[in-house]
């Protein structure tokens, strides 16, 4: 901490979702190292990670008093209000899921704001750093009421990425028609505006237009961001939105992260040692991870989730079928008869004890763990990364110059798969869409396509060359030091340097 700075009190508000939560840890660690007082308003399941970076964890559930909801469940208030009002979230199109959540979002805000206000009044922070995508709106609005500066961390590929991430499968016309017809949302909006003098719109606009904090930190570089439509760029320009493109926010070696193995026999150290030995022996290493959502029990997007067709019937592959076919494709490509032969395969199973149910066991040269120290492995050097293509995983791979095979499930994963091909850093194997009777054939075709894509990416050096070029560009974005500078400036009311404005 320089002599011109004083000790600041900083609050982070993030949901227990790996892609949203993990980037905040590196910032919290650096700010605590600089001598600032760092606190989290978060789900208690994140306590271990939070305390490991030198911050204090405050259970957000402990500040909530409405006993109608299961506060041990991070989505309990959303699920409870959706059930209460007959709102159903079906299928794995993110647009339908977001529409369902948005219908009750202001009802949720009504429930949560009093607890967030109570917390912030107790802590009295100088700045609130938060996730802007739905689950932590209470922290933002409570901070606005108390006139506390706010900084968001946007964990998709820029403001233009929200449209593709959230609106899949839903047209703007459908969005507005359904929101206008849902009277509980309108009533909650009126009550919030009357009680707190908020300026919430009568009909919630699609969430690809964010609220306005002091600044948005964006975990990509300007040249890798998803483009905005002219209309969206104009809206952000009118809002005078500030976006600071800092690149991936990677924590130090050995850091705990949400999504790593939670099993009693955590294999992280063993996997790291095996990869180090493989690199020393000039042996190839292939990493496989389908993320934490596809392997979760989340409705629609998780293990048993399927898309829903126009006829209202489930179709396509479930999360389980998709993940198992991807894992088997990797084993087909590089499986060997002994642990010492072929490339070393390391695979994350998403904390699923039933990951391999119904399929052949992995080959001897595969090390499979509930979760992996992904960033540490990428830093050691991975020859190819089979990934679901979530923004964090994609950026982590690019920042380490790692070629990829993207097997997207939904949302921005699909966009990142397309981006991998456009950048020349890897290939995409699209999620199959098929009738129920065609699922067996779709699984077999998908498995084969994953195998072929991995063999291609590992066999052609131009993918690695392109990935290294991306790494060089991301390094210039500033990363953790640039991001912490923005937070400290916001908290200290220091005049900020000119930032990249939306639409500029």
Short description:
The protein contains 17 helices and 15 strands. It has 504 residues and is an alpha/beta fold.
Topology of helices and strands:
Layout: E1 9-14, H1 18-33, E2 37-42, H2 47-52, E3 56-59, H3 76-84, H4 94-123, E4 127-130, H5 137-145, E5 150-154, H6 161-166, H7 172-181, H8 183-196, E6 215-218, H9 230-239, E7 243-245, H10 268-280, E8 285-289, E9 307-308, E10 314-315, H11 319-334, E11 344-348, E12 366-369, H12 374-380, E13 384-387, H13 391-399, E14 404-406, H14 412-423, E15 426-428, H15 439-459, H16 461-475, H17 479-492
Q: Explain this structure to me?
A:
This protein is an alpha/beta fold and 504 residues long. The chain folds into two domains: 9-247 and 477-492, Glycogen Phosphorylase B (Rossmann fold, 3-Layer(aba) Sandwich); 268-474, Rossmann fold (3-Layer(aba) Sandwich), CATH 3.40.50. Helices cover 43% and strands 12% of the residues. The protein has 17 helices and 15 strands. A seven-stranded parallel sheet has the order 3-2-1-4-5-6-7, with helices on both faces. Helix 11 (319-334) crosses helix 15. The longest helix is centred in the first third of the chain and has 30 residues, at 94-123.
Keywords:
six-stranded parallel β-sheet; 12% strand; 17 helices; 504 residues; seven-stranded parallel β-sheet; Rossmann fold
Task: Output the number of helix runs.
Answer: 17
Globular, elongated, flat, extended or rod-shaped: what is the shape?
A: globular
State the CATH topology of the largest domain. Answer: Rossmann fold
- For the record, the count of structural domains works out to 2
Structural class: alpha/beta
Strand order of the largest sheet: 3-2-1-4-5-6-7
Q: CATH first level of the largest domain: which class?
A: Alpha Beta
Helical content stands at 40-55%
The total beta strand count reads: 15
Q: How large a portion of the residues is in β-strands, by DSSP E?
A: 5-15%
Measured on Cα atoms, how large is the radius of gyration?
A: 22 Å
């Amino acid at each position: 901490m320089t002599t011109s700075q004083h000790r600041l009190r900083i609050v982070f508000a993030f949901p227990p979702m790996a892609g949203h939560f993990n980037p905040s840890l590196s910032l919290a660690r650096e700010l605590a190292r600089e001598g600032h007082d760092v606190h989290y308003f978060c789900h208690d399941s994140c306590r271990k990670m939070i305390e490991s970076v030198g911050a204090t964890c405050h259970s957000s559930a402990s500040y909530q008093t409405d006993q109608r909801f299961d506060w041990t469940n991070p989505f309990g208030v959303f699920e409870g209000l959706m059930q209460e009002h007959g709102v159903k979230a079906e299928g794995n199109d993110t647009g339908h899921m977001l529409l369902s959540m948005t219908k009750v979002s202001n009802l949720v805000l009504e429930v949560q704001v009093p607890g967030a206000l109570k917390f912030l009044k107790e802590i009295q922070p100088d700045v609130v750093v938060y996730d802007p995508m739905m689950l932590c709106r209470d922290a933002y609005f409570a901070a606005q009421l108390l006139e506390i500066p706010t900084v968001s961390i946007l964990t998709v590929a820029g403001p233009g990425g929200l449209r593709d991430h959230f609106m899949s499968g839903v047209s703007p016309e459908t969005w507005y028609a359904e929101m206008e017809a849902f009277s509980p949302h309108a009533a909650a909006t009126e009550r919030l505006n009357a009680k707190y003098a908020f300026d919430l719109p009568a009909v919630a606009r699609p969430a690809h237009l964010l609220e306005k904090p002091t600044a948005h930190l964006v975990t990509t570089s300007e040249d890798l961001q998803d483009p905005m439509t002219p209309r969206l760029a104009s809206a952000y320009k009118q809002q005078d939105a500030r976006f600071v493109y800092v690149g991936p926010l990677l924590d130090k070696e050995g850091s705990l992260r949400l999504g790593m193995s939670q099993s009693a026999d955590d294999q992280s150290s063993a996997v790291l040692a095996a990869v180090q030995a493989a690199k020393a022996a000039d042996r190839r290493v292939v990493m496989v991870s389908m993320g934490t959502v596809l392997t979760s029990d989340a409705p629609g997007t998780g293990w048993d989730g399927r898309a829903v067709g126009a006829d209202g019937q489930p179709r396509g592959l479930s999360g389980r079928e998709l993940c198992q076919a991807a894992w088997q494709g990797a084993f087909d490509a590089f499986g060997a008869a002994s642990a010492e032969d072929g490339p070393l395969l390391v695979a994350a199973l998403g904390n699923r004890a039933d990951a391999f149910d119904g399929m052949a066991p992995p080959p001897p040269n595969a090390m499979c763990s509930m979760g992996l120290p992904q960033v540490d492995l990428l830093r050691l050097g991975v020859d190819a990364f089979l990934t679901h293509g979530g923004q964090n995983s994609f950026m982590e791979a690019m920042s380490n110059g790692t070629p990829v095979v993207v097997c997207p499930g939904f949302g921005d994963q699909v966009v990142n798969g397309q981006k991998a091909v456009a950048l020349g850093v890897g290939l995409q194997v699209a999620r199959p869409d098929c009738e129920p009777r065609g699922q067996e054939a779709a699984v077999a075709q998908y498995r084969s396509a994953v195998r072929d894509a991995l063999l291609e990416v590992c066999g052609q050096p131009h993918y690695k060359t392109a990935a290294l070029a991306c790494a060089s560009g991301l390094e210039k974005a500033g990363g953790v030091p640039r991001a912490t500078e923005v937070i400290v400036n916001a908290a200290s009311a220091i005049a900020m340097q000119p930032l990249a404005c939306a639409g500029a």
